[in-house]
Amino acid sequence: MKGRSLLMIPGPIEFEPEVLRALGAPTTSHVAPNFIETFGNSLELMRTVWMAPTGQPFIISGSGTLAMDLAGANLIEPGDKALVVSTGYFGERYANLLSRYGAQVTIVSAEMGHVVGIDEIETVLKADQYKLLTFTHVDTSTGVRMDPQAIGALGKKYGVLTVLDGVCSVAGEEIRQEEWGLDVVLTASQKAIGVPPGLALLVASQAAMKAFHSRSTPVSNYYGDWSNWLPIMEAYEARKPSYFATPPVNHVAALEVSLEMIAAEGMEARFARHKEFADTFRSAVKGWDMSIVPREESNSANTLTAVYYPEDLDGNDFRMKVVKAGVIIAGGLLKGKPGYFRVGHMGAVNRNDIHATITAIDHALKQCRS
Ligand code: PMP
Questions:
Q1: What domain range includes position 325?
Q2: Taking a C-beta distance cutoff of 8 angstroms, is the pair 142, 87 a contact?
Q3: pLDDT tens-digit map of 109-152
Q4: What atom of ligand 1 comes closest to residue 136's alpha carbon?
Q5: What residues flank ligand 1, with Cβ below 6 Å?
Q6: Beta bridge partners of 105
Q7: Do residues 38 and 169 both lie within one domain?
Q8: Which of 71, 58, 202 lies closest to 131, judged by CA?
Q9: How far is ligand 1, taken at its centre, from the CA of residue 137, in Å?
Q10: Which atom of ligand 1 is nearest to the CA of 65?
Q11: Ligand 1: distance of its center to the CA of 140 in Å?
Q12: Do 309 and 224 belong to one domain?
């Protein structure tokens, strides 16, 4: 499209035209037979994308923060102990959120660009009995990626429910929810899932649902209470009409299209494509003699890359020049730290988009230095 820039921030991202067409199609009733089929099919497709054949999927109007809130509201009771493994901005958010539900929160954090070591997490888990552990799979503020398989295993070893904040990872990074023993894997629509902002999505394990059903206190969040939503999800999957709160009909239609496309690509191929694009982009970063925020290549995400500005560059000026070259990239999310920019490379991006981004950055660098 003429005059249109390429959106290469870490979400929202570029969306497939088919998804946008579904979003713009005439709205149907939320109990129309075709919509019931769309909703039911989307729930089933989530199990494929999440790799959670026996998980309970939820599709609810809202953003990623609501998905975080749903896990907190439904799994925490006042006085429960929760461990927040924080690698940046969204870990801090989770700690605040869980305290609102009366959790006694312990937070283990890493310095910017570092992961929290698996040994360090194990030491904390050994010292006390926690009900819940949350971690950010890919921290969007830094591009640091934690190892979900190791954390899932720790959760099983110490009898702790594990919650993976996958807002910046689901459908881009490798996640095998059931095989890795992760209890809640949550995300939002606007990132690698490939649907404009508006949906909170999560899949809960049987163990998480059991913990929910065993609560001795009611969920204090009315809208988010799974007692309201579980019958709705079950009804749609059984292809029956139901109502608690009006679902975002057009968004769910768009979600079905996107999930079908993701499933058709295949999860293994999709993980490999994201890795390839991340490697291509990071090779370019090396060529520019810049450094990425994650301290170790093995801990850097495949869905986005955060890059420190070289000392001779005015960050804002540089970013504006990239935008003028047709590619929108993001600044840093952490304030008061050395300046950096972020490039999202997830979802519907293709090789041409990656090369266009590299070319725009190249061009901006030359302009800044001429
Ligand atoms: N967690 C992570 C890792 C995120 O990247 C974001 C959004 N950037 C959120 C949570 C919150 O999601 P939302 O902005 O959709 O509420």
A1: 6-12+266-369
A2: yes
A3: 999 999 999 999 999 999 999 999 999 999 999 999 999 999 99
A4: 3
A5: 11, 63-65, 90, 136, 140, 165, 167-168, 188
A6: 82
A7: yes
A8: 71
A9: 11
A10: 16
A11: 8
A12: no
